[in-house]
Sequence to fold (259 residues):
Amino acid sequence: MNRKYRKTIIAGNFKMNMLPGELKAYAESMKALVNRPRWCETVICAPFVDLPAAIKYLNKEARISIGAQNLSEHEKGAYTGEVSGQMLRDMGGVKYVIIGHSERRQYFGETDLTVNEKVKAALACGLQPIICVGESARQREMDLTAPLINYQVRAALAGVDEKQIKSVVIAYEPIWAIGTGNTATAEQANEVNRYIRSIIRDIYGARTARATTILYGGSMNDANAFELLAQPDIDGGLIGGASLVPEKFAKIIFAANQE
Ligand code: 13P
Fold:
């Protein structure tokens, strides 16, 4: 982290877990464990149907920022089952939206081009995208991590201007580390995060690169968070499994309280 230049964000990704009716108790536990930390912004990215309760209990009462996990690339129209950026905005309380998570790429056919459309759709209605990039185990073995990340980041940001990039958060999530317990080492994660920052520098310049929050995600937990967050280019975490357990998530938030 480097709090002098950029914001630290500890974001939970609930994925398809947590019922709307479970959020009040979750919020109460979080509030009792860690109340309004000054050193980072805490975010929960919840399923669509959880968002009203998340806004009510997590945002209004526990001051946790709220994100969605996806949005449509379309503004409105005949897209049965989809949710638009305007709909999320209209709820009054959704600030972030995860875009291009590897599970969406893998199971729902999202491509770098749809990711780019979604990023632009989010920015157009004032939502802050958390763009996920990351390589598979096979791609890492084949030494394709750097070219793949380079392509994913550039494709996601095509057409995003100098002003809009200020609202963008990037998350490096190696697929082989997600839900597997196989965290990237702090050095491996930092190396890719630093590389992502160099791509931002190349496109938008040094000042913007220095100010961009770049997260790490993939089996981050209360035991490894301190070491990962101590790295200079890891500005926070995107946490799946461990974010569902208030005690674990709170410990990760406390791990971000370091210089
Ligand atoms: P886990 O923390 O469960 O590995 O999930 C990481 C992730 O995919 C967050 O978006």
User: Anything to note?
Assistant: The radius of gyration is 17 Å. The chain has a mean pLDDT of 97. The longest strand covers residues 94-99.
